[in-house]
């Protein structure tokens, strides 16, 4: 299947090398131009192609790409001066990234192409009386230098949701035939019947899904070349057609730090004009997905029932995640198909031997649900509590019911999975249960997933702030300093405000006392938890090396929390901010 998808670029998949930083939509500025840095250049190319075949006679030649493009522009010349350009069956320009050739030849052939091509151009400029011209014949060390003055530094480029909208929302790009969209300008597939590239609406795929570093037939163009051919040539064509706005055609316009900063600012201005929310990608993606383990097409009814019996489906809020991630690549890191297209229940080579369950639950992977959620816990408003909590390779088993819906038998009306009844009742609405068999129809499954999502809490469950003590006096260790008066209610109130409208907290803070566990970490959830000294000895107890002494426990709990929440006051060295010094 992979070899049939030939070029595409759904949000987030043009990584690193694509020159796509600023196409024209009304909210965007003119093409970006980045100033040269004294030592670091995005356009520096060290020409050492011959080194792949034999040892170099001289150091690699340093070539400033943007410097040459600017010089050609002054002479009314374009990229075809150095790069062979052809027209494909679709009538689009296809430019070779190689200098004056399409394929690599022998070392001697390459040497002749470079010397004849470069030096002859420089010599012509000099003969024509140009004020500036390049090194002439015999001036070898002007290009071949032992210690180059510049270094190549290129910023990675990502086609995130905002940059993707700049393209599909652009008035500069021609619309698809009979459509109001322009997605076909970039996205296409290989059609086996016609043996041509075609555009199929609502089947747009990721570019890097087919265009890898070493693509397989019938894909011929490797990743870097595909991105530059698709993007730079399009930008160049728009520029030649005098478009009001067009993307960069020079290296620094995409890959320099300044260009990236300017693009970031442009995106923020655009998002502000759009009211803070990007228009949704027109690809017919679902609002909600009922996620269950895959069932083989040739599976028997008994096998299907067995899978469903242990399925514990997850209602995934796809629309919400679209709006709260930078790109689709946050989850769909290869293809925009469902996860089980690559990650099978057992795991195989297509999914790099990562099973479906692992792909969802790996705590150390930003591509998994659990890993992404744990990353969210590092935000200052969350990290105060979560940074001190033990991180495990897998989530606690009693948290499964937060995402997974317990199935009920339609005939018996009782849970088919052995679960805590309190957890079950907190997730299930008495008016509608998730029963077996699950619907097979796509629309029915989406409708069920929507209903499950709608009955989830929108805000965290919090205790009544008036039930929280105004202050707590900590004086058990008072000696040089007076007892500390901790503003307990003020702290709890601030934590509640930070969690307001946080859907993750609403889902995972399942009881009113969950938040309290951030400080009262190893005690049962209670409105009157035991005092710290009931576990932490005074002084440190050698027979319990993993448990800090009382003084260390107090300071670590308080000061580490302040540090994680990025609170400027009190600083950890200001003892009297918490403890008034005794006379």
Automatic annotation (TrEMBL):
Domain of life: Bacteria
Signal peptide: none
InterPro entries membership: Cyt_c7-like, Cyt_c_III, Cyt_c_III_dom, HmcA, Multihaem_cyt_sf, Multiheme_Cytochr_ET
Ranges where the Class III cytochrome C domain occurs: 176-255, 301-379, 497-579
Residues that span the membrane, as ranges: none
Coiled coil (residue ranges): none
Gene3D superfamilies xref list: Cytochrome C3
Every Cytochrome c7-like domain range: 62-144
Keywords from the named record: Electron transport, Heme, Iron, Metal-binding, Signal, Transport
Pfam families, per the entry: Cytochrom_CIII (PF02085), Cytochrome_C7 (PF14522)
Name of protein: Cytochrome c class III
Record lineage: Bacteria, Pseudomonadati, Thermodesulfobacteriota, Desulfovibrionia, Desulfovibrionales
């Amino acid at each position: 299947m992979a070899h049939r998808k030939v070029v595409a670029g759904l949000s987030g998949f043009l990584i690193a090398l694509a020159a796509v930083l600023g196409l024209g939509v009304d909210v965007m500025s003119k093409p970006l131009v980045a100033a040269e840095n004294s030592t670091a250049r995005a356009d520096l190319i060290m020409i050492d192609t011959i080194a792949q075949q034999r040892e170099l006679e001289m150091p690699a030649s340093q070539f400033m790409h943007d410097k040459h493009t600017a010089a050609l522009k002054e002479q009314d010349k374009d990229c075809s001066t150095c790069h062979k350009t052809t027209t494909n069956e679709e009538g689009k320009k296809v430019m070779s990234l190689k200098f004056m050739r399409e394929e690599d030849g022998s070392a001697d052939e390459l040497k002749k192409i470079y010397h004849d091509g470069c030096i002859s151009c420089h010599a012509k400029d000099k003969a024509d009386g140009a004020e500036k011209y390049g090194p002439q014949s015999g001036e070898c060390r002007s290009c071949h230098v032992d210690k180059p003055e510049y270094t190549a530094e290129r910023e990675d480029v990502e086609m995130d949701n905002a940059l993707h909208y700049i393209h599909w929302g652009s008035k500069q790009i021609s619309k698809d035939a009979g459509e109001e969209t322009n997605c076909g300008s970039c996205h296409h597939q290989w059609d086996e019947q016609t043996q041509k590239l075609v555009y199929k609406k609502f089947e747009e795929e990721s570019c890097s899904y087919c265009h890898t570093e070493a693509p397989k037939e019938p894909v011929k163009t490797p990743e870097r070349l595909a991105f530059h051919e698709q993007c730079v040539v399009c930008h160049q064509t728009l520029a030649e057609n005098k478009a009001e706005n067009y993307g960069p055609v020079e290296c620094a316009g995409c890959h320099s730090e300044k260009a990236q900063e300017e693009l970031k600012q442009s995106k923020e201005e655009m998002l502000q004009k759009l009211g803070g929310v990007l228009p949704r990608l027109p690809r017919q993606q679902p609002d909600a997905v009922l996620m269950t383990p895959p069932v083989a097409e040739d599976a028997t009814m008994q096998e299907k029932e067995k899978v469903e019996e242990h399925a514990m489906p997850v209602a995934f809020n796809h629309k919400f995640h679209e709006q709260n991630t930078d790109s689709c690549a946050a989850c769909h890191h290869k293809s925009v198909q469902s996860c089980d297209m690559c990650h099978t229940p057992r795991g195989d080579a297509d999914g790099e031997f990562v099973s479906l369950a692992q792909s969802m639950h790996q705590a150390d992977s930003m591509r998994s649900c659990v890993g992404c959620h744990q990353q969210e816990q590092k935000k200052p408003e969350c990290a105060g509590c979560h940074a001190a909590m033990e991180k495990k390779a897998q989530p606690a088993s009693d948290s499964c019911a937060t995402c997974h819906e317990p199935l009920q038998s339609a005939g018996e009306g009782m849970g088919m999975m052995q679960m805590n009844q309190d957890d079950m009742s907190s997730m299930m609405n008495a008016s509608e249960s998730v029963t077996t068999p699950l619907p097979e129809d796509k629309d029915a499954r989406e409708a069920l997933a929507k209903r499950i999502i709608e009955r989830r809490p929108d805000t965290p469950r919090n205790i009544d702030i008036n039930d929280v003590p105004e202050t707590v006096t900590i004086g058990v260790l008072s000696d040089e300093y007076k007892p500390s008066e901790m503003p307990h209610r003020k702290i709890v109130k601030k934590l509640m405000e930070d969690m307001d409208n946080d859907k993750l907290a609403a889902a995972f803070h399942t009881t009113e006392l969950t938040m309290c566990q951030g400080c009262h970490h190893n005690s049962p959830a209670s409105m009157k938890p035991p005092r710290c000294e009931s576990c932490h000895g005074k002084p440190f107890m050698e027979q319990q090396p993993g448990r800090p002494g009382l003084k260390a426990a107090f300071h670590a709990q308080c000061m580490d929390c302040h540090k994680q929440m990025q609170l400027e006051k009190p600083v950890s060295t200001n003892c009297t901010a918490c403890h008034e010094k005794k006379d």
